[in-house]
Amino acid sequence: MTNLICQRILLKLSGEALMSDAGGSIDADIVKRLACEIKDLSDAGIEVGLVIGGGNILRGAEKASEGLDRVTSDQMGMLATVINALAMQDALENLGQQVRVMSALKINQVCEDYIRRRAVRHLEKGRVVIFAAGTGNPFFTTDSAASLRAIEINAGLMIKATKVKGVYSADPEKVKDAKFYSRLTYDEALDQRLNVMDATALVLCRDNNVPVRVMNIFEKGAVMELMMGGEIGSLIQRGTDNG
Q1: Does domain 8-237 fall into CATH 3.40.1160.10?
Q2: What residues form the annotated binding site?
Q3: GO:BP terms for this protein (predicted)?
């Protein structure tokens, strides 16, 4: 497909995106719907790398605050992301999409080890690559893992998928007159503490000039519209004024 804004993207989904309002860690219907969106991107010739958080199953930082060792709790969180990655892999394969899960932790019986060159080769062959287990290290979020993988695979854009339109000055569900930002710089997001993603993730994108688009993943077809040049969500990049 022509007129795409870039050929390769890194899509970051939160673990909570896989949950239904009724509760439960993974909603099969939601996973299938998200898989359909991802397959549409791949069918359009877009190379898709995917990072899914594990917060629907376990948050390492929360368990650490309850008294569990932080390194152990973060490792548990990494394993939660592997569970989500396998669920998405199954949904994509059921749609006929070739996909590979690559883990930063060695779990050879269920997925491949993450090797950068192999990941890039998978992408070049039209396979969706799901990067699991974060960075493989404690104290780093899956947002940071997404930024790191986006840089490593030379993604033209990192998409941070949320449940709201984009970046606001405050939580729009709590603050009625929260200001929406259609465009802003990395430093503006950092200085104003807009909670787009953790500071490490934003700094990685800033220092390696990877633009970040924050958008609502639950608007059907929105990602494809974005890839065709639509102004969807909020764009974070160098040298723009907020608006």
Answers
A1: yes
A2: 12-15, 54-55, 59, 74, 135-142, 162, 168, 171
A3: 'de novo' CTP biosynthetic process; UDP biosynthetic process
